[in-house]
């Protein structure tokens, strides 16, 4: 198992809370996830060091909203658990494989994450990531 530093574990948690906050704020969950994972904001979190990594989820959400010219309100809503798990796993995935948020999203988009939550959320994070990658590889 990957031995993450405290800072990296905190960033996984912050990203999970960011996804929860998007739900709580009333954003369309699939649109938020796609916007985030393909954004400069997510790329900044992927960097070895970026000032955004020291910001809380509220500030990161504001940055993303500004970047995309306004996130879509209402629409499809995922559960709080799905949103937190998705955000956390996506960030952990970056540390685990070195893949960018944009690459990760191509492998496991919001639909895949929502559909996989029930069976995968109790797995070790690395096992869930390996399984998501395997599903993608079988399809492509």
What's the gist of this structure?
The chain has one domain (6-139). It contains eight helices and no strands.
What does it look like?
Helix content is 71%, strand content 0%. It is mainly alpha-helical. It has eight helices and no strands. Helix 1 crosses helix 4 (57-68), helix 5 (80-97) packs across helix 7 and helix 5 (80-97) crosses helix 8. It has one domain. The protein has helices at 6-25, 29-37, 40-46, 57-68, 80-97, 101-107, 110-120, 125-139. The radius of gyration is 14 Å and the shape is globular.
Ranges with pLDDT <50 over ≥5 residues? none
Between the first and last Cα atoms, what is the distance in angstroms? 27 Å
How many domain modules?
Answer: 1
Can you summarize the main beta sheet? none
Count of helical segments?
8
Measured as a percent range, the helix fraction is: over 70%
Overall pLDDT metric: 95
H/E order of the elements? HHHHHHHH
Which range does the strand content fall in? under 5%
What does the radius of gyration come to? Answer: 14 Å
The structure class reads mainly alpha
**Shape, please?**
globular
Number of strands: 0
């Amino acid at each position: 198992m990957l031995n993450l530093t405290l800072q990296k574990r905190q960033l996984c948690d912050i990203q999970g809370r960011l996804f929860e906050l998007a739900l709580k704020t009333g954003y369309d969950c699939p649109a938020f996830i796609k916007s985030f994972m393909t954004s400069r904001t997510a790329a900044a979190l992927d960097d070895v060091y970026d000032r955004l990594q020291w910001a809380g989820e509220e500030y990161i959400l504001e940055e993303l909203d500004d970047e995309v010219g306004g996130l879509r309100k209402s629409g499809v809503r995922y559960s709080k658990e799905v949103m937190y798990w998705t955000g956390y796993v996506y960030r952990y995935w970056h540390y685990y494989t070195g893949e960018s948020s944009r690459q990760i999203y191509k492998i496991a988009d919001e639909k895949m994450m929502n559909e996989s939550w029930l069976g995968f959320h109790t797995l070790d994070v690395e096992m869930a990531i390996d399984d998501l990658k395997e599903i993608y590889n079988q399809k492509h």
